[in-house]
Amino acid sequence: MKKRWGKIRIPFIYVKPICIVTVLLGIFFFAAGSWIASLCMLLGAYIIERNQYCCPACQRKLDMKQRLTKTARCPFCSKVLRK
């Protein structure tokens, strides 16, 4: 897999909580009247989840709608996603 220069890897278990907080901040900014900041926060949450939500073992992209339970497994390599 080709690595890009400057790409930051967020630990897998923190991706969803970071995106949830970012979406909530986006909703807050929208309610406060700053729709540009809201749009940036919501777009940022989508981009982070799209790029960072991948299997820790095989690094293949996972479905963002997939629930992250304690017994969830990667559909590609069948390894447990959470320990």
Note down, in words, how this protein is organized:
The protein is mainly α and 83 residues long. The mean pLDDT is 85. It is elongated, with a radius of gyration of 15 Å. The protein has a domain at 12-52. The protein contains 2 helices and no strands. The longest helix is centred in the N-terminal third of the chain and has 20 residues, at 12-31. The two termini are 24 Å apart.
Quick recap of the structure?
The protein is mainly alpha-helical. The protein has two helices and no strands.
Question: What would the keywords be for this entry?
Answer:
2 helices; single chain; 46% helix; mainly alpha; 83 residues; elongated
Report the end-to-end length measured between terminal Cα atoms.
Answer: 24 Å
The H/E string reads: HH
Q: What would you call the shape?
A: elongated
Percent of residues in helices: 40-55%
- Compute the number of helices: 2
Report the average pLDDT across residues: 85
Poorly predicted residue ranges: none
Proportion of strand residues: under 5%
- What is the total tally of β strands? 0
Radius of gyration based on Cα positions: 15 Å
Major sheet attributes: none
Could you say which structural class the secondary elements and strand pairing correspond to? mainly alpha
